[in-house]
Amino acid sequence: MSFALETAAHPEGLRRVAIDPVSRVEGHGKVTLLLDEHNHVQQARLHIVEFRGFEKFIEGRPYWEVPVMVQRLCGICPVSHHLAASKAFDRVLGATPISASAEAVRRLMHYGQMLQSHALHFFHLSSPDLLFGFDSPVAQRNIVGVAQAHPEIAKKGILLRKFGQEIIRITAGKRVHGTGAVPGGVNKLVSAEERDSLKRELPQMLAWAQDAVDIAKQLHAQNPALYNRFGSFRSNLLSIVRADGAMDLYNGVLRVRDEAGHILVDGVDDQKYLDLIEEEVRPWSYMKFPHLRSLGRELGWYRVGPLARVQNCDFIPSERAEIERQAFVDWGKGEPVHATLAYHWARMIEMLHAVEVIAELLDDPALLSGDLLTSGQRQRSGVGIIEAPRGTLIHDYDVGDNDLVTRCNLIVSTTHNNQAMNEAVRSVARDYLDGHELTEGLLNHIEVAIRAYDPCLSCATHALGQMPLDVTLLAADGTVLDRVQKSALGGVSRSINHSSDEISL
Amino acid sequence: MNILPNGVPPLHAPRKLKLATVSLAGCFGCHMSFLDMDERLLQLLEYVEIDRSPLTDIKTIGRCDIGLIEGGLCNAENVHVLREFRSHCKTLVAVGACAINGGLPAQRNQRDVGQMLRDVYCGQTGIDAGGQIPNDPELPLPLNHVHPIHEVVHVDYYLPGCPPSADAFWTFLNDLLAGRTPQLGHGLIHYD
């Protein structure tokens, strides 16, 4: 069996419409639609179109380089990769638990990142759709348009993100691709001066984060029909939770709920993720399709990220965010909320929670003094799982006696949502596009659905694709730099190239 | 907090300049660092209009004054987009380590592309049985190696760093907007 609208029965003769590139998301993706002569959608796919091959070239590197290397998977959520890798190598070093100080600094870094990433997504990337309408003029549909029409909202967004980025700078050394965490602990603690500079901003940030939840809530209240229906479908929900069921974005056990909200699996040790999840490859995307082994590919796929986390946990361990979680749960009237656009509301609840956690952490004396590093009994492998802004992030490594990585497996947040994003695209294609003349505004509806998942398409590129083509890369002076051809059997053949020669232009 | 180097004059430009940005084989970190100009962004937007960019929904590039290129070249589509940027932008800037020398993604240049493909899709941990190599015509063909952009087009300026800091962006764009040759100076040029 395959999924509805994934593959047209007779693609020949259908008209192809592409949204390329998908914009106001991180990374590189495109959507293709195949339509018949009456504009009925026969096929809709979100393709991830870039290869980078991180999992392979990390093999052979010393393990202590990896937490810095893997940040280059993604510039929006580098801290997630930094910490997930560090947690995996904590295991390899037997540094479990790490010191109280190291954990406090890492948690501060992580929740700072949650704040900056969620602010960026809501204000800089998605708010134009939500504030102006999905088919508003293309020239206005960006952060510049928001800054002109709603200067206060744009400014709050910019300054909330700035606060999160400053937390990252203080804990990691710089805002993007820092070096704060190391296997077994952290590189540095926080000074009293740095802590106080952050504390001064807290009341304002708390108020603005609350405002952001209110904006998201109002959007739902003003247009419940749209917000409940748009891109909505039922799915399982996966995340980590604290052992007592509380929301914890840094550490926990794996939990899955089914589409009715009943717990399917709970308390799974993060080191045993492979017992729970397997991945499937489909020929039209670089991104793999994960699902629960026990349920298989058709029934076992699930969603991750804010929508899953806010509903998967039993409670949020901070006062204001818990009040907001309850309001969110009430919105579902006893059923899980499955609406794609509800991701934004859930994301803002998490952003509020992040500010509250940051406030708690800044009062922790362990931030200022204590041990940086811990060591223990060396192990051959380690798994690090963390809740990144976009969902559950898995780093899994084997390390040899010579300290070199011998195996690396990454399942990034956006990959878990691969099937879900495709379902959202197809739902919107069915409900809004089918049978209509496709306008720019209608096509943007598809992107609105994708954006709700806040995909990080850079993170999710693993492998190679190929076109039935012969591609030759010429330098400006006509020198052949690179040539790739696809053989009849689908293999890629390569030509010698001279890319190491400096070419003067 | 961020402090501008001494002697940097305030933002000045005779007219709104058109700016386009793209991330090729990069991680988006340079775009993040651009946004790290924070409230200075609002000032910048008084002098700059953003054309094609991941931050807007303009998907085809028009005539632009400045093109900022993040990332190197890892597939045929990257090359196509880069050439479009070169032909539409008066001034083209290689932003960050990947555009300038391939950066971390160029680590894959030591390995055979076909072998990596088989490893990742047919031999990776946790893959279900029957792994296959994606081969859909919609997927752009990867290059054997990751290339820096100056190997394919002429580049006017290089803004180094992984990523360049927000202050480096700010200083560079200020100079460019004012018609001066950009000078980053001590403290704004470093890799990490």
TrEMBL record, chain A:
Keywords tagged on the record: Metal-binding, Nickel, Oxidoreductase
InterPro entries reported in the protein's UniProt record: Ni-dep_hyd_lsu (IPR001501), Ni-dep_hyd_lsu_Ni_BS (IPR018194), NiFe-Hase_large (IPR029014)
Coiled coil ranges: none
Keyword Aminoacyl-tRNA synthetase on entry: no
Pfam families the UniProt entry points to: NiFeSe_Hases
Cofactor requirement: Ni(2+)
Annotated family: Belongs to the [NiFe]/[NiFeSe] hydrogenase large subunit family.
Protein name (Swiss-Prot/TrEMBL): NAD-reducing hydrogenase HoxS subunit beta
From TrEMBL, chain B:
SUPFAM superfamilies reported for this sequence: HydA/Nqo6-like (SSF56770)
NADH:ubiquinone oxidoreductase-like 20kDa subunit domain boundaries: 27-175
Keyword Flavoprotein included in the entry's annotation: no
Gene3D superfamilies (UniProt xref): NADH:ubiquinone oxidoreductase-like, 20kDa subunit
Keyword Cell division: no
Entry cofactors: [3Fe-4S] cluster
Protein's name according to its UniProt entry: NAD-reducing hydrogenase HoxS subunit delta
Record-linked InterPro entries: Hydrogenase_assoc-protein, NADH_UbQ_OxRdtase-like_20kDa, NiFe_Hase_small_N_sf
Superkingdom of origin: Bacteria
Entry keywords, A to Z: 3Fe-4S, Iron, Iron-sulfur, Metal-binding, Oxidoreductase
